[in-house]
Amino acid sequence: MDYPQFDILEITPELEYNTNKYQKLKPVKTGESVKHGLPVTVIGALSNFSNAKALPKLSKVLVVYFYSKHWGNVGLEHLKQLNTIRNETKFYDGKIVVVDADGDEDALQQLLWMHNISLPIHSDANATIAGLFGVFSEHSPTWNFYGGIDVNIPLPATYVTDHDFKVAFSYPNENISNTIPVNEVVDAVYRSNNYLAGKRSA
Questions:
Q1: Can you give the residue range of the structural domain that contains 57?
Q2: What does the record give under GO molecular function (predicted)?
Q3: For position 110, which CATH number holds?
């Protein structure tokens, strides 16, 4: 029997070894700044600036939460917890922003509506903001460290940034806890605005 002839170059090895050296994420820490590198369009969207380039400070202290549907109930629980401090955060002149890694705003809006959650959303499908906060990297894919995740998504992290883009509270949540320390979040918002008020009166 004659067998077909194959060129050795046409044969693809069944096992291919990935030589990529993945690195651990390096989330920003309290006291560090995220001002440099944050796109002007993002600043405007997050803080409602009409001309963000002309304004060196954020109009409000921001509570930034990184959401992806791929975290399942963990993400939903976080959204519910943040919703409970929405009014208190607003009272201290802060603003909670949900940064959506999935880019499907309609689906997320539907989820919020179903659970009576009222939080603003900002799409970050290309992970620009998540990368700036150090909770996402192409060199540290989520699926390489967390079971059950088959896509590269940001950590379900929570940050508070003051008017000068300085991180006043960091919770990268590398252990993927169901709970956000919401009292610490509110305290960071209060302290950030109190510090600014002190500087103005000095």
A1: 27-201
A2: antioxidant activity; oxidoreductase activity
A3: 3.40.30.10
